[in-house]
Amino acid sequence: MVTAGLLLAAGAGRRLGMPKALLPYRGRLLVDHAAAILTAAGCQPVVVVLGAQADQVRSRARLPSVVLNDDWATGMGSSLRTGLAALTASPAVAVVVTLVDMPGLTPEAVRRVARDATVGSLAVATYADGRRGHPVLLGRQHWAGAAEAATGDRGARDYLRARGEAVRLIPCADVADGTDVDVPEQAARLPG
């Protein structure tokens, strides 16, 4: 069974003052790090959705497969829709969705969430105190519904919430850090 990886990296990083995809992280761009996590976890294909400063990101990054979200300024929902549309021709039975601004994500967390993926799967990583985060697993039969529910800065959250107990909660705090980078103070603490 093939599970794809979808990395949402189109935002402008308004609070940060620059696109998060362009942040330096351990000798490369944060977007390269995030895409490599999905690849190392065995996701195939890995698709990266770009938008803000896409030309600069593309020229500086070494990304597997890129799709452009022309509506990136409307929020994460349009990036999820763009990415899911790009994957419809793939043989994937499910997709692991994650965000560019999570430097503490690990291949092990992605593998845990993707474990036993089927066309009907729904799963969400959880961190301290049961806080839900990324990655998120969407089985193929849920792609259309998740895309339809994705609006503004809300990706699949409302769709998943409406499915209640059908969503598997996967504890990942022991193998990953679900914290995202949103403001300059957080970015300044990243190892460049």
SSE layout and pairing:
Elements: E1 3-9, E2 24-25, E3 28-29, H1 30-40, E4 46-50, H2 54-60, E5 66-68, H3 76-87, E6 94-99, H4 107-114, E7 122-126, E8 132-139, H5 143-149, H6 157-162, E9 168-171, H7 184-188
Parallel strand pairs: 1-4, 1-6, 4-5, 7-9
Antiparallel strand pairs: 2-3, 6-8, 7-8
Helix pairs in contact: 3-5
Report on this model:
This protein has 192 residues and is of the alpha/beta class. It has one domain: Alpha-Beta Complex (Spore Coat Polysaccharide Biosynthesis Protein SpsA, Chain A), CATH 3.90.550.10. Helices cover 29% and strands 22% of the residues. The strands form two sheets. It has a seven-stranded mixed β-sheet with strand order 5-4-1-6-8-7-9, with helices on both faces. Strands 2-3 form a two-stranded antiparallel ribbon. The longest helix has 12 residues, at 76-87. It is globular. It starts with a strand and ends with a helix.
